[in-house]
Amino acid sequence: MQKTALNESHRRSGASMVDFGGWEMPLHYGSQIEEHHAVRRDAGMFDVSHMCAVDLDGPDAKAFLRRLIANNVDRLQVAGKALYSAMLNEAGGVIDDLIVYYLDDTRYRLVVNAGTATKDLAWMTDRLDEWQLAATLRQRRDGADALAMIAVQGPNARHKVWQVLPECRSACADLKPFFAATVGEYFIASTGYTGEDGYEITLPADQAEHLWEALAAAGVRPCGLGARDTLRLEAGMNLYGQDMDETVSPLDAGLAWTVDLLSPRDFVGKTALLSRPRQGQFLGLVLVDRGVLRAHQKVLTGAGNGEITSGTFSPTMQQSIALARLPLGVAIGDDVLVAIRDKLLAARVVKPCFVRNGTIRV
Amino acid sequence: MNIPADLKYTSSHEWVRAEADGTISIGITEHAQELLGDLVFIELPGLESEFVAGQEAAVVESVKAAADVYAPLAGTVVDVNQAVVDAPETVNQDAYAAWLFRMRPNTADDLATLLDAAAYQMIVDAA
Question: Taking the CB of the first residue and of the last residue of chain B, which one, N or C, has fewer CB atoms within 10 A?
Fold first, then answer.
């Protein structure tokens, strides 16, 4: 199993470690629920070094991204601006979801998922060759110049990062959401996967342990992948491999807002998407009865059956929530039934953003 | 790992306590709650439900997973612990105090078929 630069730190902190996409990662450090609350109420940090940064350089870098991804990279005009996008195959299925950071017209940084990184790099390299574009791709997860990534999230995250990295304060204090700034060897982004304020800090792997320990000393709580999953689900954010994959159209996975079908720009998968409009809708569920919604449970609605793609118990709401693919006729506010073991339990259809910035939204 | 010597165990990680009135109390072990993580939902059997040994009798769910709790012996449910339904986290806090349900075994001798602490310890160590 592969290990991040913070593996020893996690073990010293008593983490319960699990295999996640071939990486040995902390699931929790004692209580997943307390870690979840720390991020909603104060500040928590996640080792996300298993995700893979890919540096794209060259005169054709922009032309490459214009064809490669479904969102419109032309929207990136200011240095540091980030864009969330799906990368599709020719059939319109999602190969991965990723974030693109714009440095300048010839330099971008992409961050892709851990379990899909190898496949993504192979796909991108093949397209680069096929289209005969002048650019290079360089993964930054392994090797002498490997990077680590630490996500610091929560209402007090920024202030705690500034305590530890005073030089970050002037450079990042005014960072708008979904932007990044380079501070020395650190690449600091106002992105995240929790629905809270904070930073994602990319830095040389050999400096990760020092920063992690300093953040812990400043009162930032180490959080595992368990809390990361309940936080992202409350925030209504998709998880690759669960809410969408290569067999699912982004239009059926709640990602239509990231797909640019309006501009004349052609991209991989566009033809397929245009010939196959969305088949269902991606909505949230709140369980009214007691129990826990889980992936693959069947949802019975007046317009036909749907399926839960991600479900959990929401520590913030103290009830179970889920993301689900439902028939087109279903509306927000509808009452539906979910098949859990031998019972049919009552649930309500909601917009798939349950909690943001510490506040319940449904 | 805390495995009290005065209890009996199953290989599916239930603990069983013989009560003075001939009934047995059933819960999940400390090892089981640790594997599951923070519990958030517990579903208990109905009173007077009858089970054979090894039959699914209750469900415990953590944030990450659902797990069945099996009847350790054949018998009838005589009591359920509503307190753990209202506060599932008490199982994480003290797995051996937070009993789930009580049964009256069909045959008292069946208790001898369960594992003792040493045998259960070996199962945990091998996992």
Answer: C
Contacts of B43 in chain A (CB under 8 A): 291
End-to-end Cα spacing for chain A: 40
Report ipTM for this prediction: 0.88
pLDDT at residue A98 is higher than 90: yes
Q: Tell me if A312 and B63 make a contact (CB, 8 A cut-off).
A: yes
**pTM metric for this prediction:** 0.95
* Contacts with B83 (C-beta within 8 Å, 6 or more apart), sequence order: B90, B98
The span from the CA of A300 to the CA of A327, in Å, is 10
Number of domains in chain A: 3
Q: Average pLDDT in the A66-79 region?
A: 97
Query: Mutate which of A16, A25, A31, A33 to disrupt the B interface (most B C-beta within 10 Å)?
Result: A33
CATH class of B8-107: mainly beta
- Which residues is A308 bridged to in the sheet? A324
Per-residue DSSP letter, A176: P
In a domain, A246, yes or no: no
d(CA A255, CA A263): 17
Q: pLDDT, tens digit, for every residue of A238-295? A: 999 999 999 999 999 999 999 999 999 999 999 999 999 899 999 999 999 999 999 9
Instruction: Give the C-alpha separation, A100 to A120, whole Å.
Output: 14
